[in-house]
Specification:
Strand order of the largest sheet: 5-4-3-8-9
Radius of gyration: 19 Å
Number of helices: 4
CATH class: Alpha Beta
Shape: globular
Number of strands: 9
Mean pLDDT: 92
CATH superfamily: Glutaredoxin
Order of helices and strands: EEEHEHEHEEEEH
CATH topology: Glutaredoxin
Strand content: 15-25%
Structural class: alpha/beta
CATH architecture: 3-Layer(aba) Sandwich
Helix content: 25-40%
């Protein structure tokens, strides 16, 4: 499921295994993407803490967080700001999700996702929904000065849930079929 926003060479599209990473969520805590397998993950790359559009975007996601949780989805905000800066920002904005510091080497994770802005040393306003197996289900690159909102994420989570349900239905149907190959033949 892809949605057209801005385009950029190297920006990761749906169907690709999400590059693994390990980033600080606080000065003492590291988050590994691989440790979140088994649940949908929302990656919200954004340029900087304390900027107006980013503030609006992160505040919106904080408000919509209960909706994301209905899908058992983990929301992670990612920017080039340090873990200390993220801590101050999360406290000031009363955010209830983790912000990850793609600080040093600067923008390394964003580069893997095609979401780094070399011209100004920040990250694109880019969204990814990753499925339980670590595959990108949906991605969106927003214009840098535009809050992408939450509708695209929610639509992607709906689509992912429907896909998982179809796969579960097929698996259940296959499991309930008699297996003729195991019967003894005369």
């Amino acid at each position: 499921m892809s949605e057209k926003g801005d385009s950029k060479p190297g920006f990761l599209e749906p169907g690709i295994v999400a590059p693994d990473f390990e980033l600080k969520s606080s000065p003492r805590e590291m988050i590994k993407l691989r440790d979140l397998r088994g649940k949908p993950v929302i990656l919200a790359f954004y340029p900087n803490d304390f900027s107006p559009v980013c503030g609006d975007q992160m505040a919106l996601y904080n408000e919509v967080l209960p909706e994301f949780k209905k899908y058992d989805a983990e929301l992670l905000g990612i920017s080039v700001d340090s873990a200390w800066c993220h801590g101050a920002y999360a406290k000031e904005k009363n955010l209830h999700f983790r912000l990850l510091a793609d600080f040093e080497p600067k923008g390394e994770v964003a580069r893997k996702y095609g979401a780094y802005r070399a011209q100004d040393g920040t990250e694109e306003r880019a969204l990814f929904v990753i499925d339980r197996d670590g595959v990108i289900h949906w991605s969106y690159l927003s214009p840098i000065d535009t809050n992408p909102g939450a509708d695209g994420i929610l639509d992607a989570l709906d689509s992912l849930r429907e896909k998982e349900q179809r796969e579960a239905d097929v698996s259940t149907a296959n499991a309930s079929r008699p297996d003729n190959t195991s019967e003894a033949r005369p």
